[in-house]
Amino acid sequence: MSTSNNKFIELSKIAGLDPDHNQEHREILSKLQGNILSGYDCHYTAYIFLKFKAQKLTETKAWIRYFAAKKLTSAKQQWELSSNAVTHNLFTNLFLSSKGYIYLALKTGDEIAWGTNTFWEMFFREGLKNNPLLDDPQPQTWEPRWQADIDAVVLLAQNDSSELASEVQETINQLTEFAEIINIDVGYNKKSSEGYVIEHFGFRDGISQPLFLKSDLEKNCSTNYWDPSAPLGLVLVKEEDLCGNGQYYFGSYCVYRKLEQNVRGFDQAVQELAQQLGLAGEEQAAALVMGRYRDGTPLSPLPANTDQNDFNYIDDPNGNSCPLQAHSRKANPRGSRNKRNESLAEQRQHRIVRRGLSYWETRELQQPHENETPYLLFQKKIDFLTAKAKANQLHGKFFTEEDKVGLLFLCFQNSIFNQFAHIQATWANDNHFSTHEVGLDPVIGQRKKHQPIQGQCWSIAAEPERKVKYNFSQFVKMTGGEFFFAPSLIFLQHLE
After folding, report:
1. Above pLDDT 70, what percent of the chain?
2. Burial of 126 (C-beta count, 10 Å sphere; 0-12/13-18/19+)
3. By three-state DSSP, how is residue 350 classified?
């Protein structure tokens, strides 16, 4: 095994990067894109999805080199800005799909990625449209713009909407020389009146994340029952050495999914579930569905002075405190006894790094005019969100029945197959995980076409041993997305 490989294995085991005191850790951050090890904090984000034009390879590579050198935000820059409490800077990412790699002639269809397992490589290569394992809706039912092939996505984020609009216009003007703009999604940080991030169902979001930086780990109040730390190998992948100097560079696999949320249907089902279970209020029923109350407090009992995230399910094998089918428990079993006999340590290896944002689109924004340019559509979207923010309507439930709201889901991992796909297909979509006839995850679970609707088993409030079947599902619909890879800055800067 080469010295470079030995070094990568050693680095992949690091948990708690300390760039304040370790030069090697700073070097890792300087070559890595931001947003992977820690999330950025900007009000608005634009995702510009591209298809590279034929016969424009030279121009495409030249622009990627320029963007990587002049615009792309490194993890080191992100860490420095965060340490100095600077929040007004532009934040950027650039991800490539497998089709993008093939276009750039960096890989053939048979050798597209760098995972240690061939099946993982196949998983990324085939893309999201061609993946039956996830039980997603058929691609022909996705939003029309998502039915085209995607080669790359450029992420631009900024607190000021007018400054973001200027950056988007400048970037599009550059891109149109060598790429077709397929779609632009616009996301925003939806927040509660208390100031924390929530999603459209009203629940606190992003509480439980793998943590890689020592400074983030030190912010946790307690870690007696759950350790949020994670080694770099959970999220990073060693890249090919384009420079030929034997150095190691890191990237990360990304999953992007546009998830439409049926908020009115969800709220109505919560009311019905509360009635079925004889609960006095709807908040308890909503918490049973999610596994947490809306403010993020878990259903599992917490000792005094314990962090919201410091708990596991080892002492709740039958779901007496938190239902076995609750979303947060399905997506992160935290030691739940299960038919697969996965240990807590094994379950932790499937964790993903989530970086989702909310979206809100009116009927007009969903159905752009035939000759409407991508930038004009983006401008309408950002103007709409800005107007809602000025009217103090961005963070409540002010949308109409014709509006579409949801989550622009983005996650990073070392392996799409072993992490995101495992969570979605093996846990959320399995009626029998963690045990027999538990039912689908009530939030993100997707059943197979031939599978009958089974519902989940819920405990009646007055008689916990008595169960009632109630089907709580299909209030989140996937309407488009793709698998990507976030290459290192070095990789992108040295494209030839």
Report:
1. 93
2. middle
3. coil
